[in-house]
Write a structure and sequence with these properties.
The protein is α/β, with parallel strands linked by helices and about 240 residues long. Helix content is about 25%, strand content about 30%. The strands form 2 sheets. The protein has a 7-stranded mixed β-sheet.
Amino acid sequence: MRVTFLGTGSAMPSGDRFQTGILVQEDGRTLLVDCGSGVLHRLQQSGVGHENVSTVLLTHHHLDHVADLLSLFKARWLAGEEHLEVVGPQGTKSLIDDLLSVHDYMQGRLDLQIREVVAGEFSVAGFDISAYETRHSVPCLAYRFDDRFTFSGDSEAFDGLANFADGSAILAHDCSFPDDVDVANHPTPGTLGKALEGTDIGRIYLTHLYPHTDGRHEEMLESIATHYDGDVRFAEDLTTVTIE
């Protein structure tokens, strides 16, 4: 399995980080998880391209996770592709319907399949996935790909989510702000380290990084290490991780 971080940033622009998007590939199967602003460009830079993404899995519907979704629709249509599947939490169909009502010339351009999922187990693009409800300001799902890869989506850090990820080879986890920012719906390093204490995870990549974290990576890692002594790194756009 190959996991490529297309976007590791947040809703606030950064010169180095685009908004959320993660590419999961295995044995000819390709799945795009979230499609925030800039993800379409990162797809081209990754060498995969929009032509090869026929399924998108959404964690939730905030703008920084769906901003390039309709752009992906149009790019695939212009490239002569005919199909796209979008899977996500409840409300995904309403989201797509509303987007297409604004840009009505896109209606009927693709054979769109829209599927809504809840916490539990299901298959998407040939991947068997487990979903877990996170703690965010809107309904949001974390996704686990057997024992290899887990993505937290947007969420506060809490024991239930840490237990959901326990045993994963790779965990990509929201860590939006340093400790001195008073924030809800996202973790800080201190709260994340406490939640992860006692878990067995091969490597953790911190993502969904606001500009507030710039220049503060070392102190954030030290804060996590106060409670959790595993391998923790900062994700970067276009980093690819191979998981056996």
